[in-house]
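Recall from the previous lesson that a structure prediction takes nothing but the amino acid sequence as input. Here we apply that procedure to Carboxypeptidase-like regulatory domain-containing protein from Sphingobacterium corticis. The sequence below is the only information supplied.
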Amino acid sequence: MKQSILSFSIFALFILTNAGSALAQDLKGVVFDLQDSHKLRGITVKNLNNNKETETDSEGNFTISAKTNDYLTLSGGGYQSDTIFVFEEAIRRIYLVRDQSTLVINEVFVTRLSDSRLANEIARAKREGQAAEASQQRGGLRVSPSRLFGRKGKQARSNLDILFAERDNRKIDKIFSNQLIRSITPLNEDEIPLFREGYRPSLSFIESATPEDLRAYISDAYTKFRSQKTDLK
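The prediction returns the following tokens.
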């Protein structure tokens, strides 16, 4: 009887230990300067969900206890504080922007922004590109010719298209994730990024699709992906 109780206790401990390790895992990342891509040391990384905290080393690397859906803040070193959302287990490349710096928006830079920084840039582009505003003294709308026809206003409105596309893609990719694709298809690690880029569904589909709809979409897209690769050989 004592042996049975001991065996059960060891088994229960094993289950609890493995369950705990499945929930709490180490997330690794590297922090870079956005403009010249050099690695940043001494940046404080904090998990807002479990209050764990660490700093980047001389090569910009950090390791912190985190799981999917946690939020991490990054601060220090003369850079603007930022927050990232953990939506998949992978080594994260994080780019920070220096305080008072001017960001040039293009397709390359915008993909390096964290979610909170992306939201800030969208808000800024909206403000700078707004050609009309409500008049406090005279009532109605007041049109600003400099914003409507000026280079800065035009650039801001052009930037919005890029920023909105990146924002929508991130919403899609949180559901159309590597893990989901890997669970449905036999694609390898090199093929999955190509598959996601070529067959990323629309945001409207992602927002309305059931899990069954999404699985059917991925299966159909995988068939097309394989067919295209065969045709190229």
